[in-house]
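Box 4.2: Ligand-aware structure prediction
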Amino acid sequence: MNSERDFSDIITGLAKKRGFFWGPSPEIYGGSSGFYDLGPLGKLLKNRLENAIRTSFVRANFWEVECPTVSPEAVWKASGHLDGFIDPVTKCTKCEQIYRADNLIEEQSPGAQIAGKSVEELTEIIKELGIVCASCKSPLGPVDSYNLMMKTRLGLDQDAYLRPETATTTYLLFRRFLTFFRDKLPMSVFQIGKAYRNEISPRQGMLRLREFTQTEGQIFILEEDEQNWPQFEDIKDEELPLLSYPAQEKGKTEPVKMKMSEALKKGHFQKPAYAWCVFLAYSIFRNMGFSEEKMRLRQHLETERAHYAQDAWDIEVYTESFGWVECCGVHDRGNYDLTRHQEFSKEKMHVKVNQKPGVPNVLEIAFGVERPLFCLIDNAFQPESEERDTDWLRFPPAVAPIQVAVFPLMGKPELQEPAHLIFDEIVDAGFISQYDVGGSIGKRYRRQDEVGTPFCVTIDYTTIEDGTVTVRDRNSMEQIRISKDELIVVLRKLVKGTIQFESLVVR
Ligand SMILES: [Zn+2]
């Protein structure tokens, strides 16, 4: 526990010092927990992650939309959030400190069975286990439910809420989608945008935010197509690290690498279309730079699942800071959402199936962007060593905030001029680059290592003579000399990972 705390402090300290994230925000007014600012490098990293997400969805034929973040109360009544998006809370009868009842029970009585319990049952459990106020040890009041949505007002008197997820706002467009997709199902769409959750007392920094960026992708699909999903053929031989719920019930925590076709045959997945969504979510995380070894796919136990959900798998990422962190959910939501909105809005949310009206099902991939952002920094961290006198970040080149740094060996005009030309060329080619002329070359390498820049290009007097530059690799600290004419092509391959730096080193 102690070392965990220490490691998350190291990552948070590093992130603040080097400009990844700051907070809780607003810092100069004392800060509100659950809010963070992204610094210049954090914003670059987040853009990278969002680009990886967009590219993955577009490649899978999803279309992006953007909806308002505020919706009137009627929407949340229909979606079930007004009545169901709640946390159980309890208040100390003496000092009036408010706690999340489930967290408090887990802290004081690890292993207590509390999943899916009602507020009345939680009140009983608190009594039975003798759980008391953590700060003054007085008895606690009855458990009550507390809605996590942030309330606001439209005009003078219309109640409205900031969206607690993007998905609901996407569902509301169903009829518009039908027109756009010319009445052809399945229809695949996604949204990346802000969502808000009024957590009682968010802890764990960037992992639990009151305002965050959510990504949610949906497929509106007919039941018969869920079984008949031709794209499954393309991924059937892919192996994923799976931890099914029967395995968890046997006490297993290690995932088993399994071919998707085998997982389907063994009944870990019921539907090829849903299994394909689980694979898509996994491939998005791979594209965001997570290694296979740091990921597992964990199936929800029946007690963890929403009542309407037919199946749910999470992607979890291993961190030194917090152990396994739940980062993404893939949900088979059935036709719950569209049925509810049809009932409450009185608008048609169905299509004709064999001459009869049928409400399509929804398969969904949902995750916040800030969690993977934190986990990626955690996974990239490398402590200082004999070879390197600073700790550094080993980001995969494709998602590193800065991909290429450009240095003139010295600040002299005859070196700065060609260095500026090369810098412009690198930026024009679409790389995020930094031009740095301050301090010795060693110091400049060190600064780039600290923020995880994979490649540094140096322009020296030999450049003027023969048109070559040096490229230095962050991981190995080795250098090569190449012609500046082939620089962009080589950098592109290195960043994409289609060639390895090692193969370019002349020995
Ligand atoms: Zn108290």
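In the box above, the bound molecule is zinc ion. The mean pLDDT is 94.
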